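User: Sequence in, structure out. Go.
Assistant: Echoing your sequence, followed by the structure tokens.
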Amino acid sequence: MDLNQRIDVFIKLGQHLATFIKLNNEGINKDEFNELNSTLNLAYIKNGWFTRDNALNMLDQIARQLNPESIGQWISRYDIQSRSPLNIGIIMAGNIPLVGFNDLFCVLMSGHTAVVKLSSDDEILPRYILDYLVKQNPAIHNFIKVSDARLKGIDAVIATGSNNSARYFQYYFGKYPNIIRKNRHSVAVLKGTEDAGDLQALGSDIFTYFGLGCRSVSKLYVPFNYNFNLFFESIVQFGEVVNNKKYGNNYDYNRAVFLLNNEKFLDNNFLIVKEGLSIATPVSVLHFEYYSDINELEEKLNREQDNLQCIVSKGAWFKNSLAFGNSQTPLLNDYADGIDTMQFLLELK
């Protein structure tokens, strides 16, 4: 397959998903999407975190990335030449739906062969995407291998997982050219002058995918004596998260533990807000930390770079941050951990 054929197959996928999202939003069912609807249902049955809304959110994000203009702008940054394809192992995580899509996209667009190891928590949606690509152009089948066992015969690897699994990946795959990703988290910096609309947008950064993604905000940095009343009022619309059995169980458990330990926290019946130094938090818990000097905070977050995925702030006023509401809408070149996956693939020999 040449580059134009690879571009074409992904544009078709983007159009397919965009049409599905549009019809879904209009409450229209069409037979051509019966399989995709069934796939969403099966994904939720398999993994209770993968609600239809969360899966639709990811499909919508992918559809927006795969329009001709976005792909054209993205591809123009690279010098893609014909090459003998290498076998690139992709070990996908399963914390949120289709979290490994960008890696798959980059490997196939680079002209290499994707040797995919799916997560047991997220294998249904990726298989649908892979099958759809093959249906659009059967030639792409030669560039996709799904492995149910340990990866073998690979030339490089891209692996995503926890800090613990990263050590395992490094042990087994350290001899290959690799991108090995560990746990990362995202934070928000508040001035204290944010209005309800700003904080509502921040709510989407916190609650999308139940806070399970590396781009999900897990900690707030707030000025001293910050009043959380408006924050809680502004995120009321996200309260339905507690109705998800898995999220609700986490909320009940964490609240009980904090009460038993006589720890101080704020609570609105679906989110626990607690002062803490760590940027990593359990599901349903949001840490906050006071700051008094912006320059000191910038230095502190610079020291945390290896643990941070995103920083968000109102209007992106804070250095190297995104605007509230944008942490969960990455562009094609917003690579995980800030490592240019496509450039890595193009430099392989």
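User: And one key feature?
Assistant: The chain has two domains: 3-183, 185-323.
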